[in-house]
Write a structure and sequence with these properties.
Elements: E1 4-8, H1 12-24, E2 28-32, H2 35-43, E3 50-54, H3 65-77, E4 82-87, H4 92-101, E5 105-108, H5 113-138, H6 153-165, E6 172-175, H7 182-192, E7 200-204, H8 213-218, E8 219-220, E9 232-233, H9 235-238, E10 243-247, H10 254-266, E11 268-270, E12 277-279, E13 283-288, H11 292-297, H12 303-309, E14 312-315, H13 326-340, E15 347-348, H14 350-358, H15 364-378, E16 383-384, H16 386-389, H17 406-420, H18 425-432, H19 436-446
Parallel strand pairs: 1-2, 1-3, 3-4, 4-5, 6-13, 6-14, 7-10, 10-13, 15-16
Antiparallel strand pairs: 8-9, 11-12
Length: 450
């Protein structure tokens, strides 16, 4: 899109001259004959990239007071628009004052066309670079998701379906239990899309404070509210031309759902504290572990928003329904966490593989990652056994104790006591009803080091 230049000048001849040169060089030009009419134009949400501002109007021809007043207005309104001040009178003092008030450069009338075009190009390029830098700074905390690993028929079928729609801009809703890998799938969809060179912005909707919803999603101007000490770019603008992933979308409060729906329908939004309407072009991917149909029936989720986000809906199967993926995922996490902690690459024993395949995995892939991470940190050999995985203590609901030898049970209890006391042996002994000497004998017996 061509940059939009607003000329604020009371001389029709000068405005016409500027329009000719600017339009001939590909700019879109708007004109105002006074700062007052320019304020009206800006309040009507016109998107302006740069302003050419005459400093003197009807009040007088030398002081520059009217131009200074307009610069003060821009600063007060916190409008992020580059301004090049211009006057027919050569005045170093006025140039300095204008720059101090917020003008980015200064030019004298009559100007040299090449000088004017050079100033415009410099300031527009600088503004673009500043915007890109701001986006990059806000994306510094984003981390790459783990590699996507699957072998099961259920996942092969799902991936085949997703691959057919990945290159489209259709909105996609991913549903499934917690920890099934919806976030990784969302990033995979982005990587397979035509937008893969553009930003992928993920937002945990369940973590956004309701009062900050608009600021997080649409951005805010400096001073828009008490803690707005600097301008912040919203997630829709950060994701422009890329993909926006809304995780836990079912957790959006009902009043905020209407605001989100409006943006999705119109592709327009305003930053908090600004009346300037901005356009957005994002590919929307959403995810939830909730039952949205039930929420709609309860009046807690808007039906029209549901139909807007679920052009295509896919259910991610839980880990217990894709047993073939457990061991490959486990080996992937072994490599990942071993690299993270600079430890030896461990191998899985057959008993460990059987234990992994028979465990129900209520926390799905996320729980598997945590189990392997803990096992690597506590491993005493290069081979992970079923005991190292400590899966029995992960079972949340069971009315029966697992069948095991007394020695095995004793070892499990000692490990659990040490974990709960952060390795403090005397406290662990108290938890187990043992004396310190008895505890140390058992640590030696089982080769447990703390």
């Amino acid at each position: 899109m061509p940059a939009t230049i607003l000329i604020i000048e009371d001389s029709p001849e000068i405005r016409l001259s500027a329009r000719f040169i600017l339009e001939d060089n590909g700019y879109h030009v708007l004109e105002c004959d006074s700062p007052f009419t320019a304020q009206t134009l800006l309040e009507e949400s016109q998107a302006i990239d740069l302003i050419l501002l005459d400093m003197n109007f009807t009040r007088d021809t030398t002081s520059g007071d009217e131009g200074m007043a307009f610069l003060h207005y821009l600063h007060k309104q916190q409008l992020d628009i580059a301004v090049i001040a211009m006057t027919a009178w050569s005045s170093v003092d006025l140039a300095v004052r204008a720059m101090q008030q917020g003008a980015c450069d200064f030019i004298e009338k009559p100007w040299q066309n090449q000088r004017l075009l050079k100033l415009l190009d410099q300031q527009l390029t600088l503004k673009k670079l500043n915007k890109q830098n701001q986006k990059l700074q806000q994306q510094l905390n984003d981390h790459a998701s783990p590699a996507f690993v699957y072998q099961s028929h259920a996942m092969q079928k799902l991936i085949s379906q997703l691959a057919k729609v990945a290159k489209t801009d259709a909105n996609i809703l991913l549903t499934g239990e917690n920890g099934t890998g919806k976030s990784q799938l969302a990033q995979w969809l982005h990587q397979q899309s035509t937008r893969y060179t553009q930003p992928f912005i993920a937002v945990n909707m369940g973590a956004i404070v309701e009062s900050l919803f608009e600021s997080e999603m649409f951005g805010h101007k400096k001073g828009a509210f008490t803690d707005a000490k600097s301008e912040r770019i919203g997630r829709f603008e950060l994701a422009d031309n890329g993909s926006l992933f809304l995780d836990e979308i079912a957790n959006i409060p009902l009043p905020q759902q209407a605001k989100l729906l409006r943006v999705l329908e119109s592709q327009e939004f305003e930053m908090v504290g600004s009346s300037q309407t901005k356009k957005t072009n994002v590919r929307l991917i959403s995810a939830t572990n909730g039952d949205i149909t039930t929420l709609i029936n309860q009046g807690r989720f808007r039906e029209d928003l549901y139909y807007r986000v679920n052009t295509l809906e896919f259910v991610i199967p839980p880990l217990r329904e894709r047993i073939e993926d457990i061991v490959p995922l486990c080996e992937h996490f072994i490599n990942l966490h071993a690299k993270k902690y600079s430890s030896t690459i461990l191998t899985l024993s057959e008993c460990a593989k059987q234990a992994l395949n028979h465990y129900p995995w209520p926390g799905n892939v996320r729980e598997l990652s945590h189990v392997i991470e803990r096992a690597i940190l506590l491993a005493t050999t290069d081979i992970l056994t079923a005991d190292d995985l400590n899966l029995y203590s992960n079972k949340q609901s069971s009315n029966t104790l697992p069948l095991m030898t007394l020695e095995h049970a004793e070892r499990q209890l000692i490990d659990l006591a040490l974990k709960q006391t952060q390795g403090h042996i005397p406290n662990a002994a108290k938890l187990l009803g043992l004396g310190k000497s008895s505890m140390y004998r058992r640590l030696e017996k089982y080769g447990i080091t703390v």
